[in-house]
Amino acid sequence: MTLTALLALLLSYLIGAIPAAAWLARARGVDIRKVGSGNSGATNVLRSLGKGPALLVASFDILKGVLAVLLARALGLSAEWAALCGVLAVIGHNFSPFLAFRGGKGVATSFGVIAILDPVLGLTTFVLAIACMWLTRFVSAGSIMGAFIAGALVLVLPRPTWDRAAVLFLAALLVWQHRENIRKLQAGTERRLGEKVS
Q1: Which residue of 41, 66, 155, 186 pairs with 104 in a disulfide if CB–CB is 3.0 to 4.6 A?
Q2: How does it sit in the membrane?
């Protein structure tokens, strides 16, 4: 591992670790970790603060994934390192040192990584995940479905090994991060899209 690659990995992790949801909520006098699901992500911001702040958070979180991959490319690193930098950004988002190694579930940041690695795969996953979300009215269901779609497509499409490994890892991590949502979906207690924090 070269010093450049090590620096890129570290910076990617730190970029991903920027807790946009928590900091934006704090600026509005809300501790996002103590309201709603306690998750530091766009969905909890939507329920706690509304559409505008949620859109800002989602956009920033997507950008984190994109920037990590672009950083690796700008430093002249190979495609393998670019994919790994994307993965590190998602890990940083999910386990941020700024939030005692807690964070979000990595949906938006994973989408940013996948979209920049493979725009067609990213767009296809996004459209189908959004469709699932609107049909079921569950953000978590759309996110989980998106993970399965991305994982399935990357296995059947001719993709480089490193891109395939990165997407499969991110898909598995996303499903794992939603394990509590899966239990709530099974129990019928998961909040639907549009429900506010009580």
Answers
A1: 41
A2: Multi-pass membrane protein
Distance CA 175, CA 151 (A): 11
- Which helix (H) or strand (E) covers residue 172, if one does? helix 161-177
pLDDT of 193 above 80: no
- Report residue 154 as tokens: 């990357």
Count of positions (residues) in the chain: 198
Mean pLDDT taken over the chain: 93
29-52 pLDDT, tens digit per residue, is: 899 888 877 888 898 998 888 899
Spatial distance between the Cα atoms of 177 and 182, rounded to a whole number of angstroms = 10
Helices (H), 50-158: 51-74, 79-94, 107-117, 119-136, 139-156
d(CA 97, CA 55): 24
Closest CA to 100 of 33, 187, 51: 33
CA neighbor of 193 nearest in space, from 59, 43, 90: 43
Between CA 22 and CA 104 the distance in angstroms is 10
Q: Please state, in angstroms and rounded to a whole number, the distance separating the CA atoms of residues 24 and 81.
A: 31
Beta bridge partners of 96: 102
Amino acid type, 104: G
